[in-house]
Design a protein that fits this description.
Largest sheet: none
Helix content: over 70%
Structural class: mainly alpha
Strand content: under 5%
Oligomer: single chain
Number of helices: 3
Radius of gyration: 15 Å
Order of helices and strands: HHH
Distance between the termini: 9 Å
Number of strands: 0
Length: about 80
Amino acid sequence: MELIKLYITGLVILVIAILANFLATQLGLKTWYAFLEGINNGQSLSLKDGLWLFVFYPLSLGGSALLGHFICKGLF
């Protein structure tokens, strides 16, 4: 049963991460992939991209983990 809860929580995190990356691209923010490519090319990181990558993106993933936990709590 715990493995199913873990799987459902993982799916919720995955879906939210995909949506967050899509939203970031639409808003012109860097994703982790673009950030890592930029490091290799010597590109700098803007304040808004830094806030997105190091504050708001982790918060959205943490929130999605919490959401997954609540979904599992309601199902089981």
